[in-house]
Write a structure and sequence with these properties.
It is a single chain. By secondary structure, the protein is of the alpha/beta class. Helix content is about 55%, strand content about 15%. The protein contains 7 helices and 5 strands.
């Protein structure tokens, strides 16, 4: 399961990739409290698989990282081939932190998608799946405040009723009331 909400998200991608900008924009818009840590790597070519493995391992070794996003924008099958590499698949499977794969576009599938804890159709969608929406959180908080206020009003009303009943009983059984009644009785007897 993905941590809810994460405090630190590791991002494995190319620092020049549009996917990184998309992910950071989504994270900032949806949940600005999260911190993103980039593990830069190549995302295509023969040198990409060992770099992706190393980036995953660097992030997974950190105790402050709550989950890892493995992202890359769309491309041809050859451009996405690094995410079909067995070394990358094994590195994803070995991660102790949850890994969300957001490689390619909606119709693109790689072996990394099937090994990851969660597959997203795009890098932006991976970011959306990783964090809650701050607007939904604000709405939930407002609803909880309303429920709490209603509950407190109800409890205060019950407490006021209980107090009023206790005051009425106290007046009814008060020694002062009895003394006043006895004084009145004495006054009545005196007048007779």
């Amino acid at each position: 399961p993905l941590p809810a909400p994460p405090r630190v998200i590791g991002v494995v991608t190319s620092p020049q990739a549009a996917a990184l900008r998309d992910v950071l924009n989504v994270l900032q818009r949806r949940y600005p409290l999260v911190k993103a840590v980039l593990a830069p790597t190549l995302v295509q070519g023969d040198q990409a698989p060992p770099q992706i493995v190393a980036a995953l391992q660097r992030l997974d070794a950190r105790d402050d990282v709550d989950l890892i996003l493995l992202v890359r924008g769309g491309g041809s099958l050859e451009e996405l081939w690094a995410f079909n590499d067995e070394r990358v698949a094994r590195a994803i499977a070995a991660c102790r932190h949850p890994v969300v794969s957001g490689v390619g576009h909606e119709t693109d599938f790689t072996i990394a998608d099937f090994v990851a804890d969660l597959r997203a159709p795009t890098p932006s969608a991976a970011a959306e799946l990783a964090v809650p929406d701050q607007l939904e959180i604000r709405q939930w908080i407002a609803e909880q405040i309303d429920r709490l206020a209603g509950s407190m009003d109800h409890r205060l009303s019950e407490a006021r009723q209980t107090l009023a009943q206790a005051q009425a009983l106290l007046r009814r059984f008060s020694p002062r009331a009895r003394m006043d009644a006895q004084r009145q009785y004495v006054d009545d007897l005196s007048q007779r």
